[in-house]
Amino acid sequence: MSRRLVAGVDSSTQSCKVVVHDAATGELVREGRAPHPDGTQVSAQAWWDAYRTATDGGLLDGVEAVAVGGQQHGMVTLGDDDELVRDALLWNDTRSAGDARDLVDELGGPQAWVDRVGAVPVASFTVSKLRWLARHEPDNAARTATVVLPHDWLTGRILKDGNGFQRWVTDRGDASGTGYWSAATGHYDRDIVRLAFGRDLHLPEVLGPAEPAGRTADGMLVAAGTGDNMGAALGLGLRRGDVVLSLGTSGTVFADDDAATGDAQGYVAGFASASGGRLPLACTLNAARVLTAGAALLGTDLPGLDELALQAEPGAGGLTLLPYLDGERTPNLPDATGTLSGLTRGNATPQNLARAHVEGMLCNLQFSVGALQAQGIPVERVLLIGGASASRAVRELTPQIFDVPVVVPQPGEYVGRGAARQAAWALTGELPDWPRADETQLPAPSDPRAGARIREQYAARAQHP
Ligand SMILES: Nc1ncnc2c1ncn2[C@@H]1O[C@H](COP(=O)(O)OP(=O)(O)O)[C@@H](O)[C@H]1O
Ligand SMILES: O=C(CO)[C@@H](O)[C@H](O)COP(=O)(O)O
What we know:
This protein is α/β, with parallel strands linked by helices. It folds into two domains: 238 residues, ATPase, nucleotide binding domain (Nucleotidyltransferase, domain 5), CATH 3.30.420; 198 residues, 2-Layer Sandwich (Nucleotidyltransferase, domain 5). Helix content is 35%, strand content 21%. Strand 16 and strand 17 form a beta hairpin. Helix 4 packs parallel to helix 8 and helix 11 packs across helix 12. The termini are far apart. It binds adenosine-5'-diphosphate and 5-O-phosphono-D-xylulose (5SP). The site of 5-O-phosphono-D-xylulose has 17 residues, from helix 9 and strand 19. The site of adenosine-5'-diphosphate has 16 residues, from helix 10.
């Protein structure tokens, strides 16, 4: 019997990656990729162009079902005829920070938001972007009939191309990042939409985990899709006690846990997973690109940065980088910039500067793991994924700074794999039991006390609102 093929798309901040898997075994058959434009506002059309380039040359030949995992939270505004009203504002665009603060106050404070939608909005959330649009671009706001998320738009675009589009849809996972859908009730909170935007909007229908979005004219099933972090959770097949540390454009830490978290401090968002449960998650704006910036500062490349960082002592001779290069979301410091502190004539070396970039980026995320723990999420081991998980320095320093066993799943596109697994679920009606990826456990640090010293040095200088 010939095998059945499914595809998963990771339409994330920097690129579009498409993987084709065997629906029954999960074996990777082939893959394609294409870059996305830089910037924190982007025409959604660029995601379609990248998807077409990534799938060019017959990548989807014989594929029976596809699903899209996409960067969360972005606001895609559509007019009456579904035309794009303006460029999408992405999750890492901080112009709506003041709008988020206003909305928090107007609803009655952080706890009111946790009670209504499971999370306290920051600039990243779609709800804050809605308020920004209503306040700053009234003409575009007036033209906006429908608001969808990046993965919803690409899902609809695939169906439109194949003449199978019926309606805009999303899934629980991505809907939970809007700030106007509650994982607890399973419904949109229309009063919050009206509070943010001044009137109601047409919003995508929220599908269940295995519910298809439609079929293209040539018969390819299109599944609901999800947010990229929810896709990664499905692709990794997480167990209780597993916490993912994803180092892409964003840094995220999350767990697949049924517990309904409620963090009124706003560090952990109570998102939904793609499989019907919950996905408590904390996200930083600064991760892999802190290393790129450090390499540029030192006039080297990423392997060069690793080499230098690994020549320095833990603590970088007292040098600390607060890595808020793009502002920050966790902690919520949207207007912050990076700060290098503790610089002396004695520690001013390229090696210490390189190490401070890696330590600062990781310490910032280690704080988020603490926030997950404070919500009662067990942290027995950390699974390191995302582009910067390839960094030698990251691999050596993560076990030290996080002080828990750290494993690296074999290199792969886990968001795409999770989306493909969802596509197989929609196709066959059953979530396939694909084997977990082989894992490499990273060596424990040779000096077990060094991690605590690095964390203390960082914490003494970090600013938390
Ligand atoms: N060896 C490496 N060391 C450090 N960073 C790396 C390495 N390889 C890739 N990256 C970084 O990973 C990032 C892309 O990761 P990815 O998870 O695909 O991001 P996203 O999903 O946000 O688009 C880029 O910023 C790239 O510089
Ligand atoms: O905003 C979040 C999570 O809440 C980000 O994780 C985005 O979903 C973008 O992800 P990457 O492009 O960095 O994978």
